[in-house]
Amino acid sequence: MIVVGTLLLLAAVSLVVFNWRVASSAAEGVKDKVVSLQEYIREQPPIVEDSSLSDNSSHAESGTDDSSQPELVIPEEEEYEALDLDGNFYCGLLTIPKLDLELPVIRDYSLSNMSIAPTRYAGSIGRRDMIICAHNYAGFFLYLDRLQQGDEIIYTTLRGRQIHYTVGWFELIAGYDSGSMLAGSDGWDLTLFTCTWSGWSRVTARCVLA
Predict the structure, then answer these.
(1) What is the pLDDT along the chain (210 residues), one digit of tens a residue?
(2) CA 171/CA 152 separation, integer angstroms
(3) In the chain, domain spans
(4) Does domain 2-45+55-209 sit in CATH 3.20.20.70?
């Protein structure tokens, strides 16, 4: 029993060390991607708004006429633009000032992509229903639950358009309850989520357009 217990303890320590190395490597890796995206964005010409574009938000499509709702108009080519960096396609930068985070966002969701950077899980900025997920690594979304109502979130497109949000509220969603994760986009405009330590639930920040 002592031998078995010792082996299990060593296995647990090895797993912790392995996970720490993976998280550290991922946090270091995104720094280069942020610099590359920043350089790319700086090289883009200034945005010239086209007055002929109509509001492409999901809120407008729902038929509601609420003048208090801010307008968000993004051309389709800007909405789906992505930059290839080392075989992964990045669609923008996510900035969370309170957590001192600036992170690249990968356009296409997959488990392997999540180990590299935060990833667009579903939706889009223009439709005001984008969901971004990331592991609870240090340097990713480890401290997501430290945000409070009213904290600022900024998403920057590859054309340099900065879209400002504020945290509206938090939810704790079951790990496989994708329906609840996707629901309610008429009340929020951006969602950020990550795993709890147990992995059974998702810490979910619902954000609204500022």
Answers:
(1) 888 777 777 666 554 444 545 555 666 789 999 999 999 999 999 877 655 544 444 454 444 445 566 678 888 888 889 999 989 999 999 999 999 999 999 999 999 999 999 999 999 999 999 999 999 998 999 999 999 999 999 999 999 999 999 999 999 999 999 999 999 999 999 999 999 988 899 999 999 999
(2) 18
(3) 2-45+55-209
(4) no
Give me 49's structure tokens. Answer: 């708004």
CA–chain centroid gap for 15, Å, is 27
If you write DSSP's letter for every residue of 76-107 in order, what string do you get? HHHHT--EEETTEEEEEEEEEGGGTEEEEEES
HEC string of 91-153 equals EEEEEEHHHCEEEEEECCCCHHHHCCCCEEEECCCCCCCEEEECCCCCCCCCCHHHCCCCCEE
